[in-house]
Amino acid sequence: MAEIDLNPTDRAILDLLRDGRCTPSYIADEHGYSRQNVTNRLSRLVEHGYVRKVHTGLYELVDDPQADL
User: In this structure, what DSSP letter does residue 58 have?
Assistant: First the structure.
């Protein structure tokens, strides 16, 4: 799958996931985003293989698309 253009929400999600597993609610609370927005972006990051859903509502970083920057 082609790389995606990362928006500010994606970058915020990836920043938190670099420190460990997170839930959409935690990410939303930390950055003031809606939980639904975070969930939508996480789904997109999962589709592209950057993030993995390890359990209901729990995500971890698999392949950091910003690592090469």
Answer: E
The residue count of the chain comes to 69
Q: For residue 53, what are the domain limits?
A: 8-60
Q: Please name which of 33, 11, 27, 12 lies closest in space to residue 59, comparing C-alpha atoms.
A: 27
Q: Report if residue 69 sits inside a domain.
A: no
Contact 26, 36 (CB under 8 A): no
What is the C-alpha to C-alpha distance for residues 40 and 17, in angstroms, rounded to an integer?
16
Q: What is the pTM of this model?
A: 0.90
pLDDT in tens, 16-58: 999 999 999 999 999 999 999 999 999 999 999 999 999 999 9
Q: How many domains does the chain have?
A: 1
